[in-house]
Amino acid sequence: MAILNYSGGLNAAGPQTTAQRTLGTAGMMQGLQANQQAMQQQAEQQQAQEAQLQKQNQARAEGAELLKNGTPDEIAEFGMLNPIVMKDFIANAQFKDQQAIGSRVQYAQNILSGNIDPRKAIEARVREVELAGGDASGLRRTMELGDEDIIKAAEKDLAVISPKAFSAYRKACKAKRLQKIPKAKRNRSRGR
């Protein structure tokens, strides 16, 4: 008895020729290549996302270290380069709202302007925070510091919350110091 091959009969168009089989195989290969490319793109996207996440985590760690041990200048520079990370830090500080953040900036600017006694500025800020139902314990701890340390704390606050405002403050301080130096002495120090 002969074994009959019905595989060609299963094709709706009739038996396949060698050319049709080759084209079918080529089409399957193209499909496999397209699938492979899609998988490769997906893997590359995942790698890019992981690299971005690693970069963000590294920036957060660097920022946290700066908040603990950095100078206000370093913090402000970091904040301008990493605004998203700084927004996260500010959000973690649990300010009541944007108005509270703005008030903290104003408080720091009042102290740094030198136009108000730092202790009076803190006392006013404590009253403001407590009237709004906030926690002023950190401000009360700041009140225990000496005037110079209060100014340093205000600089750090401003550097964290508003790096651009801190940078402007630093430039103004530098310009003020230059104004105090006699013009002839400034020219000599520049090599003129």
Describe this protein's structure:
It is a single chain. With 192 residues, the chain is mostly helical. The protein has a domain at 61-179. 78% of the residues lie in helices and 0% in strands. It contains nine helices and no strands. The protein has helices at 18-69, 72-81, 83-92, 98-113, 118-131, 137-143, 147-161, 163-180, 183-189. Helix 2 (72-81) packs across helix 3 (83-92), helix 2 (72-81) runs parallel beside helix 7 and helix 4 (98-113) runs antiparallel to helix 5. It is elongated, with a radius of gyration of 33 Å. The protein starts with 17 loop residues before the first helix and ends with a helix. The model has no long low-confidence stretch (mean pLDDT 81).
The gist of it:
This protein has helices at 18-69, 72-81, 83-92, 98-113, 118-131, 137-143, 147-161, 163-180, 183-189. It is mostly helical and 192 residues long. The protein starts with 17 loop residues before the first helix and ends with a helix.
C-alpha Rg (nearest Å): 33 Å
Number of strands: 0
- Range of helix content: over 70%
Q: Please write the string of helix (H) and strand (E) elements.
A: HHHHHHHHH
Number of helices: 9
Uncertain stretches of 5 or more adjacent residues = none
Entry keywords:
192 residues; mainly alpha; elongated
